[in-house]
Specification:
The complex is a heterodimer of chains A (401) and B (115).
Chain A: E1 5-10, E2 16-17, E3 21-26, H1 32-39, E4 45-49, H2 57-67, E5 72-79, H3 87-96, E6 101-105, H4 112-133, E7 135-140, E8 145-150, H5 157-174, E9 178-181, H6 191-196, H7 201-221, H8 228-232, H9 238-246, E10 254-259, E11 268-273, H10 290-299, E12 304-308, E13 322-326, H11 329-334, E14 341-342, H12 353-368, H13 374-378
Parallel strand pairs in A: 3-4, 3-5, 5-6, 8-9, 8-12, 9-11, 10-11, 12-13, 13-14
Antiparallel strand pairs in A: 1-2, 1-7
Chain B: H1 4-7, E1 9-11, E2 19-22, E3 31-35, E4 41-44, E5 54-56, E6 65-68, E7 71-76, E8 85-86, E9 91-92
Parallel strand pairs in B: 1-3
Antiparallel strand pairs in B: 1-2, 2-5, 3-4, 5-8, 6-7, 7-9
Classes of the chains: A alpha/beta (401), B mainly beta (115).
């Protein structure tokens, strides 16, 4: 059991966050420049949005999940005025969650400069209201949801980086917290192993069906989730990469499968399925890049995401801090500015796996307590959202025209 | 910092695995200390093998299963001798047909072929 405690932010909907960010949401690419300018020079303002003019349930659902995330205290939605996705309706859904929200169409407020000025005014007022609303509350491990993603994997990822995260996940779950991992397309070849980890017969059914969908998807598009950098790093096949990737899920039973923008119904270890469902347009690639997977985990409510990268990476994330872990000593030395944790010390014999996992959980608690992770300190807030289709219940919020 | 000893060692994950993962780069002829659940043993590297890449621990015939983590990660596409580098040039996926043609050093695909 882990015993750290810290002060977080209690939201009116009862959720607890570890940051008090403001979010600017743009509803079409045409509004993205104004949205980015509104956030410029405002360290607590993060910017997300959807580039498409024609709307998409999956994308709206993801933006709503981020706009009502426990780390977010207030939201400004900015639209151009022609697009399908309606900023006013997103703002209304955010207000229903108990958070202050504002919205406007650029076309109704002049051009670039006047819209940026209006946005800056609204942000100042939202910041005031969010700080008045922010109730500090004690938090512990049981209040945390943590995601795990790997990217730029190499031969060390499956030996050190991912297993250390797996052990930290085990401790989190033992302490009453919630752990989510994803990348079902990086579990290809492991159907029996996945199903054997199910917490219940219902979960076993979900895991099997999720695997089959992902496998059929990979066969149909003839694309497995293994990239040139993985091969250069010593991974030879998707089966080998899968075994390493699956290690980040630790050893606890898997409670079930959630879809993108759903929250786990109770604590424990969960698998997130981001693979597109069959649809007449067949749009959406399953892991187009690391950022998409990280945003999927944050949309599920993760207040922190652990990112394991053997080859090294220089991304971060809006809304929730990213903690970057490498199992490769050389990568750690070359990219110390960007890497939060050196799990390669397990391979050189400096630390045991358990010692490394304990050190990592202390770092997680430090970041939960307010210490900035390295990507946060560098200002990284990469965001990516594209068209995709998943069969989930229709939107209650009705953010379309 | 990785010490000299770690540089010439390799980790065998499963006791029955016929490959181990290099924890540092090794030169041709270098003695590699293989550690893991099957105990400690030494094997000579037949060629340069980089950190994170695999070294063959046992002879494998064409068509034989290559095992790591106790599971089959691929199939030998030709005879492999102990101490050889095991990668795209001599091991193929049972699932993914595309990646077998990628460059063995850089992993780059042969032609730009998105999706």
């Amino acid at each position: 059991m882990l015993d750290r405690a810290w002060q977080g932010y209690l939201r009116n909907d009862g959720r607890k966050g570890i940051r008090n960010h403001l979010l600017v949401v743009y509803t079409v690419e045409c509004a993205s420049f104004v949205a980015q300018e509104i956030g410029r020079g405002e360290p607590d303002v993060h910017v997300i949005g959807f580039p498409g003019c024609y709307d998409n349930d999956y994308a709206i659902r993801l933006m709503l999940a981020l706009a009502t995330h426990p780390n977010v205290g207030g939201v400004l939605c900015v639209g151009l005025g022609c697009e399908y996705t309606q900023p006013h309706r997103i703002a209304e859904a955010v207000r229903q969650s108990g958070r202050p929200a504002e919205s406007f169409f650029i076309q109704e407020h002049g051009g670039t400069s006047s819209s940026v000025a209006l946005g800056k005014q609204l942000i100042a007022s939202l910041r005031q209201r969010a700080s008045e609303d922010a109730v500090r509350t004690p938090m512990s491990w049981a209040d945390l949801t943590i995601g795990a993603e790997c990217g730029g994997s190499d031969g060390t990822s499956g030996l050190a980086g991912n297993p250390v995260v797996g052990r930290a996940f085990d401790s989190l779950v033992e302490s009453g917290g919630t752990a989510i991992f994803e990348e079902v397309v990086e579990m290809i070849g492991l159907r029996d192993l996945m199903v054997s980890r199910a917490a219940s017969p219902a979960a076993a059914g979900q895991l099997g069906a999720t695997y089959d969908k992902a496998f059929n998807y990979c066969k149909a598009v003839r694309q497995y989730s293994v990239a040139p950098g993985n091969f250069a790093g010593g991974l030879t096949t998707i089966e080998e990469k899968s075994m390493g990737a699956f290690a980040k899920g630790g050893s606890k039973p898997i409670e079930g499968v959630i879809r993108v923008s759903e929250q786990p119904p109770h604590a424990g270890l969960w698998l997130l399925d981001s693979v597109p469902d069959e649809h007449f347009m067949q749009f959406g690639y399953t892991n187009p890049n690391d950022t998409e997977g990280i945003m999927d985990l944050i949309a599920a409510g993760a207040q922190i995401v652990l990112f394991i990268t053997g080859r090294g990476s220089v991304i971060g994330s809006p809304v929730s801090p990213l903690i970057k872990i490498t199992g490769n000593e050389r990568t750690y030395r070359n990219m110390t500015e960007d890497m939060d944790f050196n799990a390669g010390r397990v391979l050189s014999g400096e630390l045991t796996m358990d010692q490394a996992a304990n050190e990592l959980t202390e770092l997680i608690a430090d970041v939960a307590s307010g210490q900035m992770s390295k990507p946060e300190r560098l200002g990284h807030r990469e965001f990516f959202l594209m068209y995709k289709h998943q069969d989930v219940p229709s939107l209650e919020a009705g953010c379309r025209m | 910092m990785m010490n000299a000893q770690a540089n010439s060692s390799a980790f065998q994950v499963g006791a029955s695995d016929n490959v181990a993962t290099l924890l540092g780069e090794v030169a041709p002829g270098a003695e590699v200390t293989v550690v893991g659940p099957a105990g400690k043993r030494a094997i000579a590297a037949r060629e340069m093998i980089a950190l994170g890449h695999k070294i063959a621990l046992a002879p494998m015939n064409k068509g034989e299963a290559i095992t790591k983590f106790g599971v089959v990660i691929g199939i030998a596409t030709r005879r492999i001798e102990p101490g050889e580098w095991v990668h795209l040039h001599n091991c193929r996926s049972q699932l993914d047909e595309r990646s077998g043609s990628f460059d063995v050093q850089t992993g780059a695909p042969p032609v730009a072929k998105p999706g």
